Amino acid sequence: MSGTPAGSLVDAYDLVIFDLDGVIYLIDRPIAGAVEAVARLHAERKPLAYATNNASRRPAEVAELLVGMGVNARPDEVLTSSVAAAAALAERLPAGAAVLVVGAEALRAEVRAVGLVPVERADQSPDAVVQGYGPQVGWTDLAEASVAIRAGALWVATNTDRTLPSPRGPLPGNGSLVAALRTALNRDPDLVVGKPEPALFGTAARQAGAERPLAVGDRLDTDIEGAARAGMDSLLVLTGVSSAADLLIAPPSTRPTYVAHDLRGLFDADSVVRLGVGPTPAEDQAGPVVIEADGWRLSLDGQKAELSGAGRSLHALRLLCAAAWSGHPVLRVRPGSEAAGTALGELGLTS
Fold first, then answer.
1. The CATH number of the domain where 257 resides is what?
2. Considering 11, 21, 221, 270, which one is annotated as catalytic?
3. Sign of the torsion formed by the C-alpha atoms of 341, 286, 249 and 297
4. CB of 24 within 8 A of CB of 49?
5. What pTM value is reported for the model?
6. Does 48 fall in a domain?
7. Has 21 been annotated as catalytic?
8. pLDDT in tens, 192-225
9. 76: annotated active-site residue
10. Are 81 and 189 in contact (CB under 8 A)?
């Protein structure tokens, strides 16, 4: 099977589910090509949704943010982990129950919207603690949550993302704050609702009536694993947290169906490749193992790997993944041609 989709990738799917941070924007700036990609999907009447672990904004606020960036988005297209967490609490608690909220005002608003009462202190006898990302969350918030959970409150986390993307590189995410409580309490949350749990993906597909959705994300450990758990194909874009180097060491549960540098891969067959297909190293080959495809030649000799030839960098990445995923270490790859050096540089794989 070819490593390049025939025609436009998006034509094979009836719904595109986007992550936001690292895919559509970084904090408050659109990623190059994202506005154009969404506009083209709308022009082609392709259904789309946004599923985000970020619990610091309500769907209407997310849609407003996107519109301000030039992305035509509606609140009903946005699914957030704060909405999912509030819905999960409403299923488990009686109306009017107190919930200690650790996170942004958006999370408090969603808790309030489902008929529960947000509180801030453990001495207010909360029935549950819900924990989501908020830039102002501090030690006092975590201390109150710790006391409440030890007293028997249900502990729900909106997500466990260790980091969140930013123009300065990855920053601590909600998962880092959850880890602080996990260490203090010596236990895990009772429930995690965000990706990689499949709930957000499943809800998006049901709302759209989609039978063949495609999930697009920048994180292997949340977006891609969540899509796999939901039984969906996925596209990893290299515009956010996960890198080509991360892809080479990805376990089977976090391996995407496709990879592209950015959202151009949805439409341009030359800007995306399918992974897990094509040549693999011959296990019974004596001496250095050599695999070739798409103009590239990869030579593997123990801990040494050399890439030579010429072609597109994504095709080189597909070849490297084929080797790495079959048990051959390729994290340190030596360029054997000028084109190989350029491709490895584009992929961030230069030593």
1. 3.40.50.1000
2. 21
3. positive
4. no
5. 0.86
6. yes
7. yes
8. 999 999 989 998 999 899 999 999 999 999 999 9
9. no
10. no
